[in-house]
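Teaching note: in complex prediction, the entire set of molecules is handled at once rather than each chain in isolation. The prompt given to students was simply: 'Predict the structure of this complex.' The entities are:
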Amino acid sequence: MDKRRHIIAPALLSLLLIASLVWGYNQNQSRINYETALENTYQRLFFDIKKHVENVQVNLSKALVASSKEQNVVLFSQIMNEAFFAKEKLSQMPITHAETAKTEKFLTQTADYASYLIKKHMQGEDITQDQRETLNSLQSNSQAFNQELSKLHDSLMDSNFALGAMSNQQKKNVEEGNNQVFQTSLVTMDKQMGKIPELIYDGPFSDQIVNKKAVGLPKNDVSLNDAQKAAQDFFGRDRVKGIEAFEEGEHINEARLPAYTFHLYPNSQSKDLAVYMGVSRKGGKVVWMENPRPVSNAKLSIKNAEEKALKYLKEKGFENMEANYSLKYNGSILFNFANTQDDITIYPDLIKVKVALDTGEIVGFNASAYYMNNQERNITSPHLTEEEARAKIKTDFNIDSARLAIIPSGANEVLCYEFKGKYNKSDFIVYINALDGREEQILQIIKDENGTLTF
Amino acid sequence: MKKFIIITTVLSMVLLSVFSFYEPHASKQSGFYAPRILYWGSQGQDVRTVQDKLLRWGYYDGKVDGVYGARTYRAVRKFQAKNGLTVDGVVGTSTAKALGMATAATTTASTGGVDRKTDEYLLARAIHGEARGEPYVGKVAVAAVILNRTRSSSFPNTVASVIYQPLAFTAVADGQINLTPNKDSINAARDALNGWDPTYGCLYYWNPVTATSKWIWSRKVMLKIGKHWFGV
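The expected output is the structure of the full assembly:
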């Protein structure tokens, strides 16, 4: 009996040992599985990127040879696709943004440029000498990129290291590998990409559009004190008990819309519910305002709220504004107001006003689009009559209303006939260029119980 | 006696092997989906949010463990009774609203599935993970940076691919993005989507106390909002 008792404890302990071994083994197995799965994903991404860049390079070379528009359109659409794919996949690799920013930019702009050329071709224009040179430089850059990827590929095959870094041991390997091949290679590539001159074209990712500066502001510089006064006056001097400026960095003047930013402390609200306001450094205009106070008892009608918003805009010196779409959220309603001139709606001059539906107080104001775009406009009279423009539209599109409007188109603005209507039970807006009759844009309108969105 | 030992050995073997092959499902990321209806047996981050709120308001006295059990059930019923809600022990839309939890907006058939809710919710989760301790304007700013990135040529061009870009956001890497966003985060996401940008076009932000990358300091610094510096 005693002897048996002596066996129990060691037996249980050895059982526990076995159990924990089994458990550990399982854990290790699943870890290896996860690592392999991740590693495979990264490997796949890398090989894909290589292939896509290759295709970009080859198609660019072909485009330089091709002489017909049809062929060019096919090639450019392939370039656009392949470059976007490469960029998408590059951004999924476990590499820091700092090491690939310029390479990604190169790929985005190559795709964007191809799409721009497709548009030009469709409008019947030929490739100019400048564009040909741009294509040439894109081609040589993608070639350099591709060669670098080839080198990287070879060294990856040699050292056989993992791209993903999960376990400690692997991490060490990858860190070494990274330092030696991967990072160095990508950093070299990124540096080369940094030397490429700016691409000049009209597309959403071109530097001219991304770096556009505000044109709607006065030229005079405004001091912090004056801006502070402007902010207080805008909100109502007697309604605030304190104002405080945000800390600024040294490059604030290089912002898209350089401004002073303030906390305003209203009398009626507790200190942690500040109102935020941005005042432009040029001209001292209030660019945006946001009051995040909670709205509890929404009782105002949309019509009432719109009147309040319009009155507010008049008080702030914005005449001729016209409410367009509204969106209800969080007890407030947001109106999009567009400027008008001679009964023509000017969409680029956009001001957003948010009205709290409890008291009708304005709790949000955003005129950044207005100040970015507003300027003296000489609107040329349309070359097409409304009837002529109407004839350009699909016959079974049921037009509810028509009017003239100016809409943004890339870096420019175009005068269009705006046709609102229905097709297949869905709402659309079709814009027909009033000067040359081109179909400039189509927007789909999505309405739900809270308001309207355009896509 | 010998039999007894053998039986216990076998039994404990079985038990132990069950234990060793047990996959901890409960520890997997939860709260992955938009707020849902919670009831007895529900598990996840959103349950934890409910428990945390009820605990702070004195309805709940159990552990905040993310498991909807008897205590949570009783606490929810108590809360519902006090607040004039249907006393059913289920956290549906109205109870969640009374608790101040963000609820997914009602679905609309008329839009054909085209809407902004997916972007809105994902953005709100990113804000909640990255900046829940920040003032409201700091939340809008973080969302604005994400949206500015989607329009930049050196970043991916959708909200999801910007947020999930490897090594881009710490809250994504450590799983905090899967917490259920609160009302403030959702509102900040909406304001940013509606065009409010307190950063004037910035693409980066960093916390000067915790930022480890030297590179980030080579950015052009614009302004400081809350704890974060913003720059391009």
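Point out the following to students. The mean pLDDT of chain A is 87. The longest strand of chain A covers residues 344-356.
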